[in-house]
Design a protein that fits this description.
60 residues; mainly alpha
């Protein structure tokens, strides 16, 4: 992996999640960020799982 690559991926992921939160469709986000719809779904699903886990921890 080259220097700077990870930062670009994190930026795309964060941007994608924000756009989904703003109501954009999976297809629109994928097109805007030049990634597949499956990638955007993976980001969304992982974020939702992480959020649910954090919520459980906070309520312990």
């Amino acid at each position: 992996m080259r220097k700077g690559q990870l930062g670009a991926r994190q930026f795309k992921r964060a941007t994608g999640l924000l756009e989904l939160h703003r109501g954009k469709s999976i297809g629109a986000v994928a097109t805007t960020l030049s990634v597949s719809e499956a990638t955007v779904r993976t980001w969304r699903d992982r974020y939702e799982r992480f959020s649910a886990q954090m919520e459980q921890i906070l309520w312990l």
